[in-house]
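Fold Annotation — chain and its backbone

Fields — amino acid sequence, structure tokens

___
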Amino acid sequence: MQSVSVRCALRRSCPQTCRRAYATDSSRQKPYYITTPIFYPNAAPHIGHLHSLVVADIFARYSKLVDPSKPIHFVTGTDEHGLKIQNAAKAKGMDPLAFCDELSEHFRNLTRKANVSCTRFTRTTERQHCDAVTHLWKELDAKGLIYKGSHAGWYSVSDETFYPTTQVAQQEKDGVEYYVSTTSGSRVEWQEEENYKFRLSAFRESLLSHYAAHPEAIYPPQHHTDIMASLQESLEDLSVSRKRSRLTWGIPVPNDPEHTIYVWIDALTTYLSSVGYPFPSSTVEGLPSGTAQGWPPNVQVIGKDILRFHAVYFPAMLQALGLPLSQRLLAHSHWTVDRAKMSKSVGNVADPIKAIDEFGIDLVRYYLARVGGRFKDDVDWSQEQLQKHSREIISALGNLLMRATSAKIMKKVAQVKRPRPIDVPDDASYAPLKRSLGKLALTFHTHVEGFQVADAVEEVVLVLDAANLLMTQTAPWAKETSPQDAAYVQALIFETLRQCGILLQPIMPDKASILLDSLDVPATERTLADAAFARREVGDVRSGVRLFDVDLSRL
């Protein structure tokens, strides 16, 4: 078997990347840098992976909505080293790299099917990343922050993690006793071995000071509270290598071929290597030439189960390197199925590809944002709830467009000059919707900036419901409704659709684009600023456009 260092050299060389991102000059604009977890591809993607991707994509697209001139660097990818991959490849009789090629493609395919606008899909087996990890190790070692010691503890192969005795419990099955992690439920075994350690304990005070000064750095707030509480206690130094006799599928420790760099220091370095660490040159894969490099990340989207790695271990490494910490961590909740944790052994893993194929990606994205966009509590995935929320947006948005552009209404309003939304009278019929439209864009923006995506979507739904109610109450198609009154109603409905179409672009990009095209809204007039009430007008509206090609009766 070839060594990993040789394998990494065989990988295509990613373009060499920039000088230090945090030292940008005024002529080079720092991109909005956002990351997902670097997924461990030991099994097919599940709905939790899709959730992380869609959440990050919403914020990436929203940044472009706020400032179209600002570059975006959106990184996702796969974490491919470690004992679990090594053992799984061996069990299949496959070369580990070929095994990873196969598994990684499943995740790359998910990003495509989910219409995720990532600018770089990275893999920890790429040469540029391997070189970055080696460089980072040498920097930490040169600062006296890595030393050889011994480690003993309860190790989970599936979690690639050591657990303290306080997080381990004994169980019995079929007369066989074993131990499991109380955090993940995975089996653990006692291990003792010589390895290298990172002086994590040296950074407790500085991390505590950082989070005390930046309460917004971790969301939801409860996670910030938990991290602050954990930092009040002593920090143990972190094991950062494994004996090569046990783990061969990984990056060798520099100058010590008997040890392999632990998968977590390897994986966490991805966020640096994806913007060119150690920053030697002037271009970054996934960014236009001449763009500032991007460090630190504006937002890192992670699952709550890996919060400690991203809120304690990685920031300590960054402080050791003299690099700024990530601006914000969004640690989202998990998806359950029938209120139970997803598990391959139980057979209740929700398949994102199946859901996308059945409902279309925009309805799935809408459901993930609508139900999973509060991030604080675990949420349940169910076919019934996906159907329910699909019906909701199809009825509220798709049917509203069809109603407002019906042949009968279009013929009637053609008899008068189309009024501007601002010219619609402030009488009892129209005033409530006008008020809602007047504050929609700002309210939506406030929610998204506060990581309250579900609340932002709720505001759009409420306005759409109000517009549908106005249609029902005023009946612009009815014979007794004058052409002028029908035109007033239609003007407000078109304004509702225009604003909602702009705001839904990060949530449902394809459907929002079709909607705005049908309203003849120019591509240059689809920013957040354009979503203000009556800021722009619709053009030559097309009738008969069907937004959702889904049979509601089937749902």
